[in-house]
């Protein structure tokens, strides 16, 4: 389950509407706690530009299994994937 602060790759696996060049990186600021269809979740956050800066605030409806976390840099300089 995503959580605030996670940076996700949003693409076709998350929802067909984000296939091809419609995909983007997304920083989660809120996960809606209300129940929805099994395996789906409403997320609020920011679309990020190539420098990681917030571009647009959006609310998206996506499949949890299709979300891919972005690689992050740990404080000690090693690369990790947030799970």
Tell me, rounded to a whole number, the average pLDDT.
Answer: 88
Q: Which strand order spans the largest sheet, edge to edge or round the barrel?
A: 4-3-2-1-5
- Look at the helices and sheets and give the structural class: mainly beta
- Choose one word for the global shape: globular
Proportion in helices: under 10%
* Uncertain regions spanning at least 5 consecutive residues: 73-83
How many extended strands? 7
* Count of the domains: 1
Proportion of beta-strand residues: over 45%
- Rg over CA atoms: 13 Å
Order of helices and strands: EEEEEEE
Largest sheet: 5 strands, antiparallel
Give the termini separation.
Answer: 9 Å
Number of helices: 0
Please describe what this structure looks like:
It is a single chain. With about 80 residues, the chain is mainly β. The chain has one domain (about 5-75). The protein is built from no helices and 7 strands. Strands 4-3-2-1-5 form a 5-stranded antiparallel beta sheet, with no helix packed on it. It has a two-stranded antiparallel sheet with strand order 6-7. It is globular and about 35 Å long. The termini are close together. Mean pLDDT is about 90; it is low at about 75-83.
